[in-house]
Backbone:
């Protein structure tokens, strides 16, 4: 840097001409930064996605162009799985929307005690990983249900679990994705100015008419957007259809890809790549519709005092808590009670409950390894994501060129497309040995880390970029004026400004990555299990009490992290923690 | 030797010329105010001097060394100047001491020297004892002083100030103006100060550069701009000046003979014979006891600051009204003779017909 080589005492006159850089070009440091970010995105995201496309578009066995795609699309298994995906997702979205909109209106319009706790409970289905949700509902609804059994409502022993069906999958996914609709509706409700409602009240419109005739139309585009988001989540969901659909012989695209790869190995990669593209296309369509809904249908609202709940409704409050208890508390209670049973099939009671399962799973080396692997992966992923996001966000906020904007868009892809699609891209890209090093990442923990990095980067990048864009750019210019070069400015001026957002994003990554299943299920290998894989495998073997114990332990770890984040909420940027908005 | 020279500096944003062919030369130790309405390009010009924007064309020299030009630009890190931002740009995560020390550390000054300089600049801006505070614990005026101290600590030869008083209330503004003057004379550095407030500019600057739509209208001392404007827009902008279309009949030894409202008079100016503007301020006009250069009818009067600010419709001149201060109240329609002391004549573009310029004068008045 010119600043560091110049004499330390500034002189009013300069005898030697200073080194100049070409006009119109940003400094060399920024070029290097851009190259690093580009290389990172190319390695983790662009290459795997390119390999996926190449595999899906390859010629068929007879050599016809796009033949493989034609073969797969014509097969009966594909049609069944596509129908299963559309049926379960479509039904689940109906449930998500009814529940999410109802809860958002209740929370937004009724005066409530313990609002933060209630909102947290409403969001728990989203915070808890799908395999744990599925497991909890299986235990709640099954013949051995400790809760329905006590009430005499459990299905008779020997009958199949009623949730092992299309409607069962739709029920559990519907509850799990309800928070997406809830959050979208709640945000929209808070943007409705109170005076629009007051204007209706003054001319004598009754309360229910105001809710249906004025508030609902205003928030309808957001509800539609939230519902489409829930639809994309349902299409990509793996945990619920894997645990409910595989025993129930309900085929969906995510589980079909999993079963094909498990059964035939990487030789099936081309075929399943076509299935992955179908999923990506469905998701792309839903997201395009969502963008349309938000842009075209939404009427710009005037700014104003937000709508505050004014009336209390004791009956409404009781109903609200009952619904929340049913979707958030009861299934988890069933899970905990199952985990307290010493063996599968034992009835729950004061004399049978014990911590034996917990002791057994903690003593199990594979389970301990899974916890260590998941913790290591989650922490490494969070750390690297922060290290990448800070310079990335700097470029996005301060030097937004066409390439930077394109990269900013591309890194969103692995987060919005189904995890199964991402995992498949990783297999196709990293199963062959790496070009120069000659080693394959497949079968190591590294492929899981790369996959996690690709998928979870937006969780850190988005809040960090938002913080960088709201920061005063002159803070950094002032540092340039006093002679600080790019590395120093990044470390001492830019980083402190975005640090809270980076910490919050890292927390979200740890919480999400800790219980990840979709990527891990396709990428794990012996000795490199994760918690999600462990729960899935134990349940698959029929050891549901041990699976429940592991799920309870991981959920406890997750809630511990939530509590930690909650305690530190003062130092985090606003609206990072979804339950504190 | 001039310290700061610009030659045909030009910068466009999205096809709009923010700074258009600006040239000037400012002597060492000057206090230059860049004055103009918002959007006139003055901040862009300042940012080009700082190196925060690269010019599209033209050249910028510090002490005869090109820092921006066809051969490339010197990045701001290497220009060794000081800058006070409109938002102050104090780093919120550092104390006052940390803010001042950061630049000193970047320049690798030893710890003892750093400590000495921090004490020195805090003393200069009157904030000794505030070194451990954080920016959010300071008042607006104190933040301003810290921002100034931070740029003084490196002892730059050139200090840039971007609307430094915009966020302060009127009382603090006057105090800080006096501080700027004091510190300018103490340090001997060249100051470049961006403002849209001509009173600020006239009060502190040794040189004022008036900008309008990206172009530099005139650079000169505050007295020059007030008494001897070079363009019609400077004449109207500075001190709420007025212009009347006149015909210059002769010009000799800095005096122009002009025809106005059927009469002939001699006024200072360098305009060649032909169409001209007579430039003056309300204070140059007074009621004449007998026949003056022109007469007018009272349109309206307001009692302001102890005198009657009077709007007068001149007779035989193609403008709507002129203003002057009168000691007494007169009924609307009263005809009075007007005397002119001072005034300045400049050339008027011959293409602009008097009727049209009269209309322009009305709309911009």
Residues:
């Amino acid at each position: 840097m010119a600043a560091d080589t110049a004499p330390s005492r500034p002189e009013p006159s300069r005898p030697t001409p200073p080194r100049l850089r070409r006009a119109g070009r940003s400094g060399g440091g920024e070029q290097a930064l851009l190259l690093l970010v580009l290389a990172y995105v190319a390695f983790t995201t662009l290459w795997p996605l390119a390999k996926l496309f190449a595999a899906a578009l390859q010629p068929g066995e007879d050599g016809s162009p796009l033949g493989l795609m034609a073969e797969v699309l014509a097969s009966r298994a594909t049609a069944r799985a596509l129908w299963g995906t559309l049926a379960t997702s479509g039904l689940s979205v109906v449930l998500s929307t009814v529940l999410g909109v109802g809860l958002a209106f209740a929370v937004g319009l009724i005066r409530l005690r313990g609002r933060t706790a209630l909102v947290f409970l409403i969001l728990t289905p989203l915070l808890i990983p799908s395999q744990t949700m599925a497991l909890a509902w299986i235990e709640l609804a099954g013949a051995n249900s400790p809760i329905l059994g006590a009430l005499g409502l459990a299905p008779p022993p020997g009958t199949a679990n009623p949730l092992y069906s299309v409607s069962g999958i739709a029920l559990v996914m519907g509850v799990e994705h309800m928070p997406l609709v809830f959050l979208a509706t709640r945000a929209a409700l808070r943007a409705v100015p109170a005076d629009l409602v007051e204007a209706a009240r003054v001319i004598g419109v009754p309360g229910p008419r105001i809710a249906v005739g004025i508030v609902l139309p205003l928030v309808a585009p957001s509800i539609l957007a939230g519902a489409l988001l829930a639809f994309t989540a349902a299409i990509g969901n793996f945990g619920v259809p894997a645990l409910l659909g595989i025993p129930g012989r309900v085929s969906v695209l995510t589980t079909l890809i999993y079963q094909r790869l498990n059964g035939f190995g990487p030789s099936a990669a081309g075929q399943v790549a076509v299935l992955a593209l179908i999923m990506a296309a469905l998701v792309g369509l839903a997201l395009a519709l969502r963008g349309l809904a938000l842009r075209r249908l939404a009427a710009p609202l005037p700014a104003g005092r937000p709508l505050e709940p004014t009336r209390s409704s004791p009956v409404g409050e009781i109903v609200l808590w009952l619904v929340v208890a049913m979707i958030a508390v009861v299934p988890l209670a069933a899970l905990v009670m199952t985990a307290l049973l010493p063996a599968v099939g034992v009835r729950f009671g004061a004399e049978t409950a014990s911590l034996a399962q917990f002791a057994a799973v903690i003593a199990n080396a594979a389970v301990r390894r899974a916890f260590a692997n998941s913790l290591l992966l989650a922490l490494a992923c969070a750390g690297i994501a922060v290290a990448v996001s800070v310079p990335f966000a700097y470029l996005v906020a301060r030097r937004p060129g066409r390439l930077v904007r394109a990269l900013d868009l591309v890194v969103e892809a692995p987060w919005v497309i189904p995890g199964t699609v991402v995992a498949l891209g990783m297999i196709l890209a990293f199963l062959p040995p790496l070009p120069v090093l000659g080693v394959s990442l497949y079968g190591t923990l590294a492929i899981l880390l790369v996959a996690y990095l690709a998928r979870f980067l937006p969780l850190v990048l988005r809040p960090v970029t938002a913080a960088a864009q709201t920061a005063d750019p002159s803070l950094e210019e002032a540092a340039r004026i006093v002679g600080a070069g790019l590395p120093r400015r990044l470390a001492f001026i830019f980083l402190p400004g975005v640090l809270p957002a980076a910490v919050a994003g890292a927390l979200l990554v740890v919480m999400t990555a800790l219980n990840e299943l979709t990527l891990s299920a396709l990428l794990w290998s012996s000795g490199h299990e994760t918690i999600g894989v462990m729960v899935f495998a134990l349940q698959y073997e029929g050891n549901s009490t041990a699976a429940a114990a592991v799920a309870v332990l991981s959920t406890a770890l997750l809630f511990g992290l939530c509590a930690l984040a909650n305690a530190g909420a003062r130092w985090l940027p606003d609206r990072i923690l979804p339950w504190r908005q | 030797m001039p310290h700061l020279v610009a030659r045909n500096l030009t910068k466009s944003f999205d096809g709009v010329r923010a700074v258009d062919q600006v040239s000037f030369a400012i002597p060492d130790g000057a206090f230059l105010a860049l004055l103009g309405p918002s959007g006139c390009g003055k901040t862009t010009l300042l940012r080009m001097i700082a190196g925060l924007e690269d010019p599209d064309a033209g050249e910028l020299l510090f002490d005869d060394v090109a820092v921006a030009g066809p051969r490339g630009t010197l990045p701001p890190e290497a220009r060794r100047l000081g800058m006070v931002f409109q938002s102050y740009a104090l780093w919120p995560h550092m104390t006052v001491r940390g803010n001042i020390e950061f630049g000193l550390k970047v320049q690798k000054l030893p710890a003892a020297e750093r400590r000495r300089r921090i004490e020195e600049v805090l003393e200069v801006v009157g904030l000794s004892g505030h070194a451990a505070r954080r920016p959010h614990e300071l008042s607006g005026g104190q933040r301003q002083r810290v921002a100034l101290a931070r740029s003084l600590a490196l002892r730059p030869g050139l200090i840039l100030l971007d609307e430094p008083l915009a966020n302060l209330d009127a009382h603090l503004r006057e105090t800080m103006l006096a501080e700027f003057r004091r510190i300018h004379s103490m340090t001997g550095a060249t100051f470049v100060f961006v403002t849209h407030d001509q009173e600020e500019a006239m009060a502190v600057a040794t040189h004022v550069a008036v900008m309008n739509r990206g172009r530099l209208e005139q650079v000169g001392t505050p007295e020059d701009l007030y008494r001897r404007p070079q363009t019609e827009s400077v004449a109207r902008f500075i001190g709420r000046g007025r212009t009347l279309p006149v015909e210059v009949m002769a010009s000799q030894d800095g005096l122009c003979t002009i025809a106005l409202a059927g009469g002939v008079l001699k006024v200072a100016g360098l305009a060649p014979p032909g169409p001209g503007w007579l430039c003056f301020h309300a204070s140059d006009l007074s009621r004449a006891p007998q026949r003056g250069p022109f007469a007018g009818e009272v349109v309206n009067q307001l009692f302001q600051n102890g005198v009657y600010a009077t709007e007068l419709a001149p007779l035989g001149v193609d403008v709507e009204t002129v203003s002057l201060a009168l000691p007494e109240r007169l009924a609307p329609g009263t005809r009075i003779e007007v005397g002119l002391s001072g005034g300045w004549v400049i050339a008027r573009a011959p293409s602009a017909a008097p009727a049209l310029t009269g209309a322009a004068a009305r709309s911009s008045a």
User: Anything to note?
Assistant: Residues 2-226 of chain B form a domain with the Rossmann fold fold (CATH 3.40.50.300). The interface with chain A takes residues 28, 50-52, 54-55, 62-63, 65-68, 71-83, 85-87, 89, 91-93, 102-103, 106-109, 150-151, 154-157 of chain B (CB under 8 Å).
